[in-house]
Recover the amino acids of this structure.
């Protein structure tokens, strides 16, 4: 699941991450694995809380195309 998180002021919340293949840190939007038996929206809520330490009052689904194991560049899933 991948999320784009905005504030009431229409600002995007992003995070700084370190990847082994990059010489320095990079900016990223929140994303992560959808656990077995977990709905995509529940995974998005969990990941936003884990990675940004915030919770959101409103959610808007922008699509239902999922990428599997994005850190390793695996394929797309079309539920």
């Amino acid at each position: 699941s991948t999320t784009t998180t905005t504030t009431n002021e229409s600002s995007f919340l992003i995070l700084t991450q370190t990847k082994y293949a990059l010489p320095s840190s990079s900016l990223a939007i929140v994303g992560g694995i959808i656990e077995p038996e977990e709905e995509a929206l529940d995974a998005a809520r969990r990941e936003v809380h884990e990675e940004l330490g915030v919770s959101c009052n409103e959610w808007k689904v922008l699509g239902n195309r999922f990428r599997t194991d994005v850190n390793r560049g695996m394929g797309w899933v079309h539920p």
In short: The chain has a mean pLDDT of 77. Residues 35 and 43 are 7 Å apart (CA to CA). The first helix runs from residue 40 to 52.
